[in-house]
Amino acid sequence: FVLVSAVWAGARRSRRPTAPAMATAADPQPLALSSAPAAGRGPMERRFNPYDYNGGTVLAVAGADFAIVAGDTRMSSGFNILSRNQSKLLKLTDTTVLATGGFRGDISTLQKLLRAKLVEYEHKHGEAMKVHAVAQMLANTLYGRRFFPYYTWNILSGLDENGVGCVYSYDPVGNYERVRVNVTGSGESLIQPLLDNQFERQHQQMAAKPPPLSVDLSLDDTKEIVKDAFYSAGERDIYTGDTVELIVISKAGVKIETHELNID
């Protein structure tokens, strides 16, 4: 009887559920919900950058009765050419053209918004917006996004109420001023010294100073200098090239020209 009882008690104990064994260092670890890195691996980091810089150069010059706006058509990202015929110029009105460099996504968004505001103004007032009003509207639009700015550098050009060419230079958050000439983009450091010498006369001690708000060269001479500037920048700057679009704004309207640049 004692022997049978002992065997029965042992059988009951063997049927009881047992606790799982503790995992050893050699056993694979189950997935954890914590953010701590797994054993033997360093910390992992993920970053998101909402901006990209697509290169290119834009330029504008104000003359006595004209304005010239120019920009190349190459769009790049890093060392890759994404497009060879992407324009950086936008005709806003019959006497106003916007040139923009920077991130193509923000450029497209900004252009769509400006078009909508111009159409709304024209429907309300029955006339197109003047260039000085467009300049202020653009500044307000950029300043409204100052906490998450449009990654763009803008140059607005046109003819003022007196028929004189005007150029407005902007930073990404809407600060702007009227200038004779302006260039921005990846080729700025290459072109700016040429503009300072030929248009501003900053390095010509005996040369006559230009008027306060425009250059004193003829339209043809100004066009040749602008084309030479882009030809030179295209040879040195990998983000400037393919084609330069050159727009002439005058009382006769807006005329566009294209000239081939270096394509390699």
Gist of the model:
The chain has 264 residues and is of the alpha+beta class. 30% of the residues lie in helices and 27% in strands.
How would you portray this structure in words?
With 264 residues, the protein is an alpha+beta fold. The protein contains 5 helices and 12 strands. A hairpin with a 5-residue loop joins strand 7 and strand 8 (165-170). The relative contact order is 0.17. The mean pLDDT is 87.
Strands ordered across the widest β-sheet: 10-1-2-11-12
- Assess the beta-strand content as a share of residues: 25-35%
Number of helices: 5
Q: Return Rg in Å.
A: 32 Å
Number of strands: 12
Mean of the pLDDT scores? 87
Silhouette: globular
H/E element string? Answer: HEEEEEEHHEEEEHHEE
Query: Which segments are poorly predicted (pLDDT under 50) over 5 or more consecutive residues?
Result: none
Distance between the termini: 102 Å
Structural class: alpha+beta
State the helical fraction.
25-40%
Summarize the biggest pleated sheet.
Answer: 5 strands, antiparallel
Which helices and strands appear, and what pairs or packs with what?
Blueprint: H1 2-15, E1 57-62, E2 67-72, E3 75-77, E4 80-83, E5 89-93, E6 96-102, H2 104-125, H3 131-143, E7 152-159, E8 165-170, E9 176-179, E10 181-185, H4 188-198, H5 219-236, E11 243-250, E12 253-260
Antiparallel strand pairs: 1-2, 1-10, 2-11, 3-4, 5-6, 6-7, 7-8, 8-9, 11-12
Helix pairs in contact: 4-5
